[in-house]
Amino acid sequence: MRFRCLHFLCCFLFLASWAQPASVLVLPLHNASQYSDLNWVGEAVADVLLTEFGSANQIVVDRDSMTEGFRRLSLRRDADWTKASLIRLGQSLDVDYVCHGSYDASLPPGVTDLRKSTIRITAHFIDLRKMHDGPELSEAGPLVDLSRSEEHLAWQSLKYLAPDTDPSLDAFLSPQKSIRIDAQESYVRGLLSPSGEQQQKWFAQAVVLDPHFANPIFELGKIALERRDYRGALSWFGRIPAGSPLYDQARFKMGLSAYRAGDYSSAANNFRQVATVYPLNEIYNNLGAAEIQLNQPNASDDLRRALEGDTSDPVYTFNFGIILLKSDQFDEAATRFQSVLDSNPDDAEARSLLDRARSRLPVTSSSKLTATARLKENYDEAAFRQMKSMFQAKRAKS
What we know:
elongated, 6 strands, Rossmann fold, Serine Threonine Protein Phosphatase 5, Tetratricopeptide repeat, six-stranded mixed beta sheet
């Protein structure tokens, strides 16, 4: 996987000598049972593995990238793939490992209620670096205890992927990770739904069934943010607990929501909190954008950090141009806005600010800027995780 140059590149390369997290493609497990009503289980298991691998700082392929990989190779998502197809898919997504598998279910004689079935999950790994098969891992238990089986499988898998980390089994099997089976099913059906309305219905049902299930809460926050219901988004994201793997992402989304709602102080606080854990360009840019709106002096330093991490990014360049314009550095500001226009000649806002800089018109109470700083809507999660893994490895060895 390729990562954009970040402002901590030198430190990053130094830390690379300490540890290299694995990049993993986690595929939906194939339903080998006779019960089509259990098709959702394969997606549920894959989702938990993806979450736990990411929390352990492995680099995981997200659902959108995986779906694009399926499309490029004309592979059906619910197929029982050949090993050759798995290898081609993994290589096309540039990963170290492919995790795939299947599951079967059985009912006691005379019983038809699938909730009383026993499920056996089998996971396999293909090591694409060495081109050989990894271990076969399996879990079996009642379907109603699926979340426990999923977490135990994730623990086993991480012992293979990252043997030096020695993950605690108790942490994986903590009561907080126990999710109701019907809530999991509703959540997965939401993920697979083609329309936003259906997704919202399934996610909302999952939250009703299990109010502590963070995944559907986060998805409902994303839906609200996409619909510009910023107060609703803040409410949903604010329910993600600090111990959740989604917590930092939720704080970032809260920053976006608060900024769009005009609550710049709250936006800055959320971005600042995430920046203390993950000092990425995107976060410093957004923090600086909120600080511009608050007329805080730290805006210049934070936007400079973002720009130094990627001097070719037009968003960072535009925002730093605003800082220069507000401090009457007209020539430097004009250079920044011209750079933005070089990348997008149709940027009317940058054109207007360039004209203002060339006119050397200062920003005063009677001549304010109408332009607002621009946000990054997402961040590079893979860079997050790789950086975090390397910092932790360095601390552990020092």
